[in-house]
Amino acid sequence: MLTLGLDSGTQSTKCIVLDVATGEIVAQASEKYGLIDGLPPGHLEQHPADWIRAVEATVTACVTRIGDRRKEIRAIGVSGQQHGLVALDAQDEVVRPAKLWCDTSTAAECEVLASAFGGSAGLIAAAGNAIPPGFTAPKILWMKRHEPENFARTTAVLLPHDYLNFFLTGVKRMEFGDASGTGLLDVRTRQWHADLVAAVDPRVAEMLPPVGSSLEKHGMLRSELAARWGLGAGVVVSAGGGDNMMGAIGTGNVRAGVVTASLGTSGTLFATADQPVVDPQGEVAAFCSSTDQWLPLVCTMNVTVLTEQVRKMFGWDHGQLEAAVASVSAGADGLLFLPYLNGERTPNLPDGRGVLHGLRMDNMTPAHLARAAMEGVTVGLGYGLRRFAELGVTPTEIRLTGGGSQSAAWRQICADVFGVPVVCLHSAEGAALGSAIQAAATAERETGGATLDELADRLATLDERTRHLPNPAHASRHAVQTDQFLKLTGDLHAGGWI
């Protein structure tokens, strides 16, 4: 059996073809696209049509590469960037460009929703999560307040991966994992929270699709797409999920004890739990997983965004960046970089800005700046790991994914900051692999075959060459650095500087 795994992200869509029997990725393709130019600061949007074109291009490229084996494809799974708002009208046409997870223009709407429930604590008591600007609920309210004509036209709201599932099947549905990132789902009951929905607008209850199990299929591939791509009849489309939920599956993070850290455009740290993990401080998102469990998660908005900015500033290639970071000792000789170039989600600083602290004559070098940038974004995730421990989630190993995980210097920084061993997977495409594995499990479920856990254990294999153990001396240095990082952030925010 072959399955297709699609990962529709902020910068590109990737497609892989997984041979479920051997675990081999027999074909892969990617297609890039960008953000809409010229929007005001904080507004980050894309055209959903670009995602569709990228799906068509990557699937066509993959099935062309495997030739007659395309008839062996039995299922398709979709991973998508979380939280984005896709608004559809009565004719199922897109009403306006999608507002993305990284859009921070909805801070005022977050305040409106929080006020309606007595603040963030009231929101957490109601449904398990505070509602930061990245979530979907304030985006819907923003459209109502700023674009009333578009809101009046809207009859359905979907998340990015749901929209792609709708394109593939013609079915509108949400699964527990991605739906929990809207801010409108009660994560304890896994049902829409009626009062939260009404706080946005009573009409939203009619716009939301049914929500259900992530283990159930979303639907069947439309016959015209099967014919266009040369596939057989009866191809199943699995429920799919958000990129973090699919990344968990693709890194074998399907049971307690394993934590995944994703070093991509944004940074995420997430674990699997068999019950809701609700943070009374609201810093750990109490998401559901796409395995019908729960996925406590910390997200930061600036990871490779920052390291790539530094790399381009000095005209380096990735090898030169790696060498520069490795040439400076742990702690960057006291140079601390608060990495909030795009604002921040954890901590909640939608208007945050980056800060360099501790400059001296001896550390004012490009290499020190590179090291401080890489450490700064990792320490931000390390704070999330501290919060995990306080909520009873303690890892024995952290599995790394995302572009940053390809750097050996960065992997060692992660091990030192996190204080536990880190390791990568043989496949760097965690979310795409996760969606392909979920698709395989959905097809097997139809015939009583292997379970999702069994498939994830077999197909998400570790690359032991990438394993790094914590250096105790570095770990203690980074613990102090984390304390300094948090105090500096708090003091500057309290003073109105970030």
Explained architecture:
It is built from 18 helices and 24 strands. The strands form seven sheets. Strands 1, 2, 3, 5, 13, 14 and 15 form a seven-stranded mixed β-sheet that branches. The chain has a seven-stranded mixed β-sheet with strand order 18-19-17-16-22-23-24. The protein has a domain at 2-242: Nucleotidyltransferase, domain 5, CATH 3.30.420. The protein is 40% helix and 20% strand. The protein is α/β, with parallel strands linked by helices. The mean pLDDT is 95.
Described by strand count, sense and barrel closure, the largest sheet is:
7 strands, mixed
Q: What kind of oligomer do you see? A: single chain
CATH superfamily of the domain at 2-242: ATPase, nucleotide binding domain
The helical percent reads: 25-40%
Indicate the structural class: alpha/beta
Q: End-to-end span in angstroms?
A: 52 Å
CATH architecture of the domain at 2-242: 2-Layer Sandwich
Proportion of residues in β-strands: 15-25%
| CATH top-level class of the domain at 2-242 | Alpha Beta
